[in-house]
Structures are given as C-alpha cells and as structure tokens.
Amino acid sequence: MAGYNLKVKRSRSGLGLYTFNPIQKGACIIEYTGRMLTLEENKTVENQYLFRISRTKTLDGSSRSNTARYINHSCRPNCEIDIYRGRIYILAKRNIKVGEELNYDYETEFFDEWIKPKGCVCLKCKPQ
Predict the structure, then answer these.
(1) Could you tell me the pTM of the whole model?
(2) Pick the CATH number of 6-115 from 2.170.270.10, 1.10.10.10, 2.170.130.30, 3.30.1330.30
(3) Which whole number is the average pLDDT over 28-47?
C-alpha cells in the first residue's frame, strides 16, 4: 500500500474519506481495520462498522483509528473490496482524481437496513 494523503471531511452523507493524491486503478488504498469479534460477540455487538469477512468471522471497525470506516457507499463506486487472508483492503476500481471522495458499493444487509429505507444519496441516485 502506498502512503496516500487521505482526509476525513464533510460529505453528502455525513463524513467521508477523500484523497489528496491521484490514485491509479488497481492500487491498494487502505486497509479496513479493527478487532475480530468472538463468536459470542458476533451475536450481540451491533454498530454501523461491522464487516463480515466470512460466515464465522466479523471485524468491528468502529475504532476511530480505522480511517477506512469513513468510506461511504455509492451505487457507482470508485473503489472495491478485496478480502485476502482474513484482511479487508480497499482497492481503486478506476483512476481516482485529487479531491474525490472514496466510496464502494456496500452490497450487504447494511444497505438494505440503513441506506435503502432513507433513500440512497450517492451521486448516481441523487445527482447534485
């Protein structure tokens, strides 16, 4: 992973993660980090930053030190997820320009429970 200049700023949906470097398609931008939940915690812990890695493994990315937690959903994303050996990486799906907000398609029950009922505010669904 290259050391990209990423900053958390206001976005359409609260806070978002923006790049201040150009990022080439395919580049590994950042890792989604956190604490792996135990099987028992997996049944009881609820927050917006849980990331299911497999049927039995879920990562709690709620710590503010997990900068990747600020990456928002988009129905036309510039990033994608790659899970490799139990770790979660965010990769550039296309070339990303300086100043762009990073986003990926959540494609999970999180989208169905939290975003869909309120209405998606990504640029594809709600142009400015």
Answers:
(1) 0.89
(2) 2.170.270.10
(3) 92
